[in-house]
Structures are given as structure tokens and as C-alpha cells.
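Sample intake sheet
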Amino acid sequence: MRLFFSALFALLIISCKSTKVTSAISSQLNGTWIPIKQQMSGKDMPIAFYEKQKLIISDSSYTLIAESVDKGIIRVNEDKIDIIGKEGVNSGRQFKAIFKIENNQLIICYNLKGDSYPDSFETQGKILHFLSIFRKE
């Protein structure tokens, strides 16, 4: 289960309506991101769960380094992200998420069911909603 959520949080980051990220979004999202907080269904995940993870975003590609490596593509449309797993435990899976950048942090809320975008950054009472807060390395 830990591996599933680790790979999942990686699956969510950015590309534009096609497979290119706009230059403004790209410059903000590109780079290596370190999780500083994760939450599932309103409950904080223990630091040990994510302390060795890294999310690397390069234009429309992502790589998540956790217990294993997960890779795929991301598509961004305004504040929404479609994450498509191509290699690793989430290969063939698609997830929907919302994101924002605040105070030099990337905040992403994923719907792990993948059928709709979250309507907020709250996970309380939402069993398959996963929140990750990152700082840039």
C-alpha cells in the first residue's frame, strides 16, 4: 500500500492541454520536489512514509523516486493535472489532481480513483483523496 501511494503522488504533475507545459507553469514546476507533508483521508502520513521520496518534473514528464521508480506524463490545464503512468507500479493508470503554488510550495490534491478532479485541497471524509505538499530541492 505504501508503494502504491508513493507512486501515486508522483503521477501527478504538469503538462498543458497538449503535452507541453506553458513556459510560466513549466518554470515554476520544473525541478526536483521534496515532500514535506502528505495526507490521506484527513490523516497525516508519518514522515517515514515519504522522507526519502523525490518528485522530478521536466516539462510534460515526471519521475517519482520512492521504494521504486515511477515515470509518466502529465498534462496541465489551468489548475488541473492529468497524470498518466507509463513505467513502474502505476503503468497504465490515470489520475486526476488539482494543484497550486503558494509560499514556494507545490500543493497537489489527487483523486486516486481517477474519475474526477478534487473540488478542494481537503481530504477529510474523502477516502481516495491524497494531498502532498512539496518544497523545491
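Comment: The two ends are 26 Å apart (CA to CA). Helices lie at 2-10, 23-29, 47-50.
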